Amino acid sequence: MYDIAIISGDGIGKEVMESAEYLLDKLDINFNFNYGEAGFECFNKNGTTLLEESIKIAKSSDATLFGASTSTPGQPSPIINLRKQLDVYANLRPIKSYKGVKSIKDNIDFIIVRENTEGLYSQIEYGDDNEVIAERVITRHASEKISEIAFKLAKRREKLNKVTCVHKSNVLKKTDGVFKESFYKIAEKYPQITTEDFYVDATAMYLITNPLNFDVIVSSNLFGDILSDESAGLVGGLGLAPSGNIGDEHGLFEPVHGSAPDIAGKGIANPCSMILSTAMMLDYIGEKETAMKINKAVEDVVGRGKVLTPDLGGNAKTMEMTEEIVKELI
To answer: Is the pTM of this model over 0.90?
Structure first.
């Protein structure tokens, strides 16, 4: 029996979470769901974007599934707050092209490893009406930890056996200097892994001109966030982009897309990102074979192109595509 925290959020977060729960209910694995609240609706109801009770539920569960949350003006991001509370310092965002979906290349397969707790997302801002300052926090400790994750992933993937460090140390000489130095310090422990480093602006171009060059990309918080959304655009959009947030004690899994208020309530959100994130969660808790089967089911359904949501060129509803994936699975 696995205890899974379910925090749907709002917007299409609730709709795609229904898909995740439907899928998990069909598996021959026992789950106990513990529900928490977060997001804009939570703020309107409770005066906070993330309940303390939700944090407790996530900390006491084997893993957490998060849907999506709408930005609340003047309030901290609930997902960033939850990541910090759980100390899930590594954000993993796989990027993969699918047959039947328009991609810039047919065989793209890399993963972005994003430091999840520091950088500009430290949310340390202050000032007055004339000047505001945001602090960019980079430590050697966190930089070495995230590089370690990246090298371990590259070793396990057995693809190009390469890790690319992305930074901007020509301008941000101290903060990104520390990040780059930490990367190469950890690289000394993995002589079998090829290493390279690029400036973030150059990487943004290389992802378009030569995406097959990449295997594992490691970067700081903001750069990793931007590059992962760009990368999702290479392979069909955010509807096919899952993510996992991993720490030493906790795992938090979420689709890369936001709450998409423009389509919320229409039942047309692509469930794949949430379902693929659920597969990442299953892999994390040790159900690796089931995770692989789910990934294959998504790949097969998308590849056939018969039951697709509008963002992928079809006219299926969210649950129709979900049911097709589950049918493929079982």
So the answer is: yes
